[in-house]
Structures are given as C-alpha cells and as structure tokens.
Amino acid sequence: MKKFLTLMLLGSSAVTAPVMSQDDNKRNDIRYNLNESGSHYVKFTFTNQVWLRLNDNNPGTTVLSDAESNTFDIGLRRTRMQLFGQLTDRIFFYTQFGMNNFNKVSAFPGYNTAGTPSQRKIAAFFHDAVGEYEVQRKGNSFIRFGGGLTIVSGFSRFSQPSIGTIMTMDVPVFAQATVDQTDQFSRKLTVYSRGQIGKLNYRIGIADPFPVETSGSTPAALNQNSVFAQRKHGKQFQGLFIYNIFDTEDNTTPGYMTGTYLGKRKVLNVEAGITSQKNAMWRKEAVDTLYSNMTLWSVAAYLDMPVNAEKATAVSAYLGYFGTDYGKGYLRYNGIMNPATGTTQPIAGVGGTQGNAYPMFGTGNVIYAQAGYKLKDGLLGNQGTLMPYASLQRGDYDRLQDAAHIFNLGVNWLMKGHNGKLSLNYEDRPVYRNASVANELEKNGRRGSWTLQYQISI
C-alpha cells in the first residue's frame, strides 16, 4: 500500500509539475513527459467560455411561448477538454471531449430535438478521436497520415479553428459549412494526410458524412429548394493548401488553426481550399427529383505578426472569398446559442428564424474580413492589455434580394493572453421577410446584440 501511494504521488507531481511545453505559447502546462527530452509526452487542456448576452430579437420571436422583443441570457458557448500526445517519434493521438451552446432553452422540446422530449442534462460528447502516424520528417518539414473523428477540413482556415485562440469573440460559423447537418459539430469520420513541405502546408482528406436524418432534427421536406439528400450517400473530398511566406505555423494538433498568435510569430499566408461531395443535395422540380453536387471553395490571406518588439504590439488580419454552392435555392438560418424557441412571423421556405438567427448558409458567395490590433503589454499594469477588433461578413445568396451584412466590433481584455480573457462584442445583423417575388427574401431592418464572454483556458 505504501509503495502504491508513493507511485501515485510521484505520478501526480509529474503531471502537474511546471514543464515548459513546445507549443507557440512557450508556457507551463499540464503535461506528463514520457522521455527525458520531453519530445514524447501526454498533455491535458481545458477551455470554458461563459456568455452573458443582451439580444434584440428578430420580429415575432417567442421564448417558451411568450412574445419577447429582447432577451438576456447566460450560457456556456463552449466547454472542452483535450487529451493528446506524442507517444513515439512517429505516433500521435488527439482527443477532445465537451459540449457547446448550453443555455436555458438549449434542451427545450421542439427546439433542438424536433419535438422529442428531452432534458437539460445535455450529454457532452467526443468532438475528436484521432490517431496519426508520421511517415517522414526533415527539419520543419513532415508528412503525416491519420484517421478518425476529426475537424480536418478543406474549405478554409476557419472551417477548423482553434477556439481557444480566437481573436474575434466567435468564429465565422458560415465557414463550418455543414455544421450539425452531415457532421458532428463540424467533425466527420475522415482519413487524411497533413504536412509541411518547405513553405507549403497542406491537408487532404476523404470524409464519410453522417446521414442528415441523424442530425437530431426532422430533415427538410423535399421541395423546390435544395436540401441535404437522403439518398445516394457519397464520400466527401477535402483539400486545403497554405503557402507560408514568413514563419510556418504551429502544426501540433490535426486541423485546428490558431486565431491569433498575439505577436509571438511573424505569419503571412495565402491559402486555397475546396470541399466537394457528389449528389450531396436534392430538390423537387415538378414530379422529378434532381440531385446536385455540393462544392465549397475559398481563397484567402492571413496576417499575424508583431509591430513593435519592445512594446509587444501586434496586428492580426484576414480576408477571404468563399464560393458556396449547395445547389439551387439552398438557404439556412442559424443563430449561435439561440436564446429563443419560436416565432409568430415565420418566413416561407426557411426555418429557425427567431431570436438572433440570420441567413448564415446559402448558395452564392461570401466575403469575410477581420482585423485587430494588440496594444502594448502592461497597458493595464499587471492586469494585462487590450486588443480591439472588427469583422465584416457579406453573404450574397441567391434567394436574398439584398446581401446579408453582419458587422462585429469588440475588444479583448487579455488578462493572461488567451488563458484568461474577457471579450465585449457588439454584433449588428440583418432581418428579412418574405418578398413579393416568390421564394425570395427582402430586408426588413436590422437587429443587434451585446455579448460579454469570459474565457479561461489552461
């Protein structure tokens, strides 16, 4: 018994002892080294994002059957745990467990569960479970093959974001194009290869999408507008290629791409990506059922670098163009952690228009840009510094008579970098209604929301 307790104490101290990690932050972390050099290790992380939000609701919004023009809600945007490690020079594993979008109505029957009785004890789930094997490494260049449940994607940088290092308060979710339709919160069962060859970073993969019937909601009825097909299931092909003009980026975990390095690296990238699936969509025309391919592609540039080394100021910016072809007439509303449960003013041909929702996904194109500036270290004394930012999203979808413009302005209080961060954000979004032209939507004003997020990440 004495031997057993001694081993437990030694193991505990090994896990929690300050060991300098090899990631970009060069910070102490919860890590157990498997060899003396620390090149073989197992690491644990935890991230929690708490939201306090005041939302100006869309017209007709109801919350638990009561009409509500404004709502204040408290929620957990993300609560995640990661366990991953380099077991040998060639073998790497990665897992992530957690939950998302948990507020007072997230388990409301008929809201997320299509009328199926549910309860507030929402089960957390595995987001990722991946194994990788490195076939070649020379300096910073490497080639790896992997497989499992993963967010590795071809569409764009923000299709696989590192949520703990986001510069804006939240990611541009439109880039997670099939989220909770034919994937598990943007993750799919995938075999892939990723690597760094000189200045070129790549990831290519073949995914087996989930049937849309397993999304937890009743699939959209077959009609004149394209929706995800329930027949002719096929594989999905992914490819993302990034050219690093200056520094290469952190490649520790599969998929997840850093939001901002806070000036720790000098990064300027250009990228191009594509996601394609044959017969992914279907629609009805007269008595015929027509299938169409889903093709999503993007080109973008990403900048993140120090401005003044002495003051530790830094700039971060992104500009991307996205072609989104889901088939004729596809349009889907989405509201992040929606605070509402229904509407008295439905819009024909789309659902879920209450609360803070807007047309987030559709056939057409999107331009997305963001920029931020990290002020000098110690701006607030020993309480950290600030990083103001802004973003613009323009969704020009076929069924919208006027493009959807979404503006975000905010500021991060970086108490301890991304490990302790308070973010205040204002979002301004469009509101739509049925247009005089059948199957089209026209603008009907704008609404806004204020959100305060407290993030703790270790």
Overview of this protein structure:
- The protein has one helix at residues 2-16; strands at residues 19-20, 28-33, 41-56, 61-63, 66-67, 70-86, 91-102, 125-138, 141-150, 188-197, 200-208, 227-228, 236-244, 267-285, 288-308, 313-325, 331-334, 342-343, 358-362, 364-374, 385-397, 404-416, 420-434, 441-457.
- It has 458 residues and is mostly beta strands.
- The chain has one domain: Porin (Beta Barrel), CATH 2.40.160.
- The strands form three sheets. It has a 16-stranded antiparallel β-barrel with strand order 3-6-7-8-9-10-11-13-14-15-16-20-21-22-23-24.
- The longest helix has 15 residues, at 2-16.
Low-confidence segments = 1-26, 110-115
Structural class designation: mainly beta
Distance between the termini: 33 Å
Helix content: under 10%
Return Rg in Å. 23 Å
The CATH topology annotation reads as Porin
Q: Could you state the order of secondary-structure elements as H and E?
A: HEEEEEEEEEEEEEEEEEEEEEEEE
Strands ordered across the widest β-sheet: 3-6-7-8-9-10-11-13-14-15-16-20-21-22-23-24
Number of helices: 1
Q: What is the mean predicted local confidence, pLDDT?
A: 91
Named at the architecture level, the CATH assignment is Beta Barrel
Tally the beta strands: 24
CATH class: Mainly Beta
Which range does the strand content fall in? over 45%
The main β sheet shows up as: 16 strands, antiparallel, barrel
Taken together, the total number of domains comes to: 1
Rough outline: globular
Organism: Dyadobacter fermentans (strain ATCC 700827 / DSM 18053 / CIP 107007 / KCTC 52180 / NS114)
Keywords: Signal
Protein name: Phosphate-selective porin O and P
